[in-house]
Amino acid sequence: MARYERETLSEPGRRRPLLPKVQLDSEAFGAFAEAAARFMGTGKFIVYMTVFVVVWITLNVVGLLGLKWDPYPFILLNLFFSTQASYAAPLILLAQNRQEVRDKMSLDDDRRIAAQARADMDFLAREIAAIRMNLGELATRDFVRGELRTELRELAERLERTGEDVTT
User: Fold this and answer.
1) Residue 95 burial by CB count (10 A; 0-12/13-18/19+): exposed, middle or buried?
2) Which pLDDT tens digit goes with each residue over 10-60?
3) What interhelical angle do 26-40 and 75-135 show, nearest 10?
4) Rounded to 5°, angle at Cα 118 from 116 and 122
5) Which of 47, 63, 65, 102 has its CA 20 to 30 A from that of 121?
6) pTM
């Protein structure tokens, strides 16, 4: 199969990719990366890796069951760890980038909510100030009670002077 396809030799050929284009669901892959990074950051992962290394070294040094596929200095084990690290680092970076995007969105939401709360507080402060200004023009409950007491006292005094019965 030719690398370049042409209709005629006078037309430039189109380049075909060497590898087929792979379509990945970025959300699913991102979730996988986060799960992998989350697992690699646990004590369980450290314990599993420690057990794996101890078993590997024990089998290759002692040679139990006649198994010695990776003698000292354990080049195959080092290759395994290098491969693991080469995959772990990008997965961890991808997980961190996704978390950074979520944090930025959360921060933007927090700023928007804080701005709305500030606008609401300013509105309420203006409303309270307007009510206080108008309240000065209104009669308060204590003022009305005081005025009624004064009127009742004056009425009682007037009735006493004229001698009429106040109780009726």
Assistant:
1) buried
2) 777 677 777 777 787 888 888 999 999 999 989 999 999 999 999 998 888
3) 110
4) 115
5) 102
6) 0.54
